[in-house]
Specification:
Elements: H1 3-23, E1 33-40, E2 46-53, H2 57-69, H3 71-81, E3 89-94, H4 97-113
Parallel strand pairs: 2-3
Antiparallel strand pairs: 1-2
Length: 114
């Protein structure tokens, strides 16, 4: 699969999974989950979903557990909405880049106050 097609397909998967999470999931723990990035393997057989959850530490931890349990549901819903010969196997990775960015901004503000 060429790079351009892989990039377009990753964007489509990100959009579709985001819609599934916002509209088709009854688990309240998944309401505050955002898909930040999708990385697709060269042959398109595996997709890594990077996601972040908002809320308190407990709510975020519950969201991570709920995402892991909803992985099969997400793949089946993805299969019904996307036209591919084989639907990629989904892997989940917690994206902590937003938290790291907030921490860096907080440190920079503290340094500028001194």
């Amino acid at each position: 699969m060429d790079e351009r097609r892989r990039h377009r397909l990753a964007g489509d998967i990100r959009q579709i999974v985001g819609e599934i999470l916002s509209r088709n999931v009854s688990d309240e723990r998944l309401r505050n989950v955002n898909i930040t990035r999708v990385k697709l393997s060269r042959d398109g057989s595996h997709a890594t979903l990077f996601f972040e959850a908002t809320g308190t530490d407990t709510e975020r931890q519950d969201s991570y557990v709920a995402m892991e349990s909803a992985k099969g549901f997400l793949r089946s819903q993805l299969a019904s909405r996307i036209r591919l010969r084989t639907v990629p196997v989904l892997s989940l990775v917690k994206d902590v880049s937003g938290e790291k960015g907030d921490r860096i901004l907080h440190i920079m503000r503290d340094l500028s106050d001194d």
